[in-house]
């Protein structure tokens, strides 16, 4: 009888620990959701500011444009979508100007 009682106690402890862990994970999930919302709001503020900027703004990653604002594209005579993923940025600069660099 003692073995059964010990097994029951072990199961009760394990269930209690699992419930505690579920509560912790739910708390982490809520924190993650708040961080994700804050990140989305921050990105929206950046995009709004950059898209309406009077100066050219770009972000380069992995040797290509990840983001260009409308003004930057206008300066080079393109639409923003045309510049995304352009790998050779030198193609935007006239050969004569490249020699000066």
TrEMBL record:
InterPro entries hit by this protein: PAS (IPR000014), PAS-like_dom_sf (IPR035965)
PROSITE patterns to which the protein is assigned, alphabetical: PAS (PS50112)
Domain PAS: 67-101
Keywords: Coiled coil
Transmembrane portions of the chain: none
Keyword Coiled coil: yes
Stretches of the chain forming a coiled coil according to its record: 25-52
Protein's UniProt keywords contain Coiled coil: yes
Any one Pfam family match given in the protein's UniProt record, by short name: PAS_8
NCBIfam families: sensory_box
Protein name (database record): PAS domain S-box protein
Organism this protein belongs to: Desulfomonile tiedjei
């Amino acid at each position: 009888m003692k073995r059964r009682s010990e097994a029951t106690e072990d199961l009760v402890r394990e269930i209690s620990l699992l419930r505690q862990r579920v509560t912790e994970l739910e708390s982490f999930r809520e924190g993650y959701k708040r961080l994700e919302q804050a990140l989305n709001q921050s990105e929206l503020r950046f995009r709004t500011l950059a898209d309406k900027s009077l100066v050219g703004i770009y972000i380069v990653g992995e040797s290509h444009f990840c983001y260009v604002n409308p003004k930057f594209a206008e300066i080079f005579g393109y639409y923003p979508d045309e510049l995304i993923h352009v790998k050779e940025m030198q193609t935007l600069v006239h050969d004569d100007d490249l020699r000066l660099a």
